[in-house]
Amino acid sequence: MQPEPTPFESKNNLHFMSGEAQPLRPVSIEQRFEIWLDGKRLVVSEPREPPQAQRLVVPPAVVMGIKSWRHACRLAWKLRHPRITQRTLAELVPGMYASHVSDYFSVHERRREMPAKLVGLTESVIGNTVMSQWLAQQSRLTVLEELQISRRAA
Q1: Cβ-count burial of 113 within 10 angstroms (0-12 exposed, 13-18 middle, 19+ buried)?
Q2: Which of 17, 76, 93, 151 is the most buried (most CB within 10 A)?
Q3: pLDDT grade, residue 32 (50/70/90)?
Q4: Is residue 3 part of a domain?
Q5: What angle do CA 77, 78, 81 make, to 5 degrees?
Q6: Is 38 inside any structural domain?
Q7: What confidence tens digit (pLDDT) does each residue in 42-82 have?
């Protein structure tokens, strides 16, 4: 006699009820991520549909809690969608070396940091704007101020 699976035992994104595997379906229109970064709990939500059309924008309170560029890169990697590997990221972002990617998202401060020229393409592949949000917060400019400055320069 086989042991009967529990009603919502998750295995490979499937749940088992009465021995039949059925794919999980979204219950709400938002997906919540719970992430632990340096001992702090961060809860971020993103719309479920469509995942490719929208990029995750984290709340300003989360961005203000990020201490350094390395922490911004690590949080962006933890919130990546789709869940790709570092090797796949290196293949999808032109100019990124596969051997350097683990350094960019490492917890060790002495490792190399991600160059600014890779930020835009990296964010489009991993599906969030955490790194750009942190950079904007560090320059203390709002989107409106950036637009005003660009109009004055033109």
Answers
A1: middle
A2: 76
A3: low
A4: no
A5: 75
A6: yes
A7: 666 554 444 444 678 888 889 889 999 999 999 999 999 88
CB atoms within 10 A of CB 62: 19
Q: What is the pLDDT of residue 19?
A: 41
Contact between 34 and 43 (Cβ < 8 Å): yes
Amino acid letter at 76? A
Calculated CA dihedral for residues 131, 125, 93, 88, nearest 10 degrees: 120
Structurally, the chain folds into a number of domains equal to 1
Q: Which domain holds residue 54?
A: 30-153
Written as six digits, the tokens of 34 are: 């719970």
Q: Is residue 126 part of a domain?
A: yes
For residue 15, pLDDT beyond 50? no
Q: Which long-range contacts (CB under 8 A, 24 or more apart) does 79-83 make?
A: 79/33, 79/35, 79/44, 79/126, 79/127, 79/128, 79/130, 80/126, 80/127, 80/128, 81/46, 81/51, 81/56, 81/126, 81/127, 81/128, 82/51, 82/127
Q: Is the residue at 110 inside a domain?
A: yes
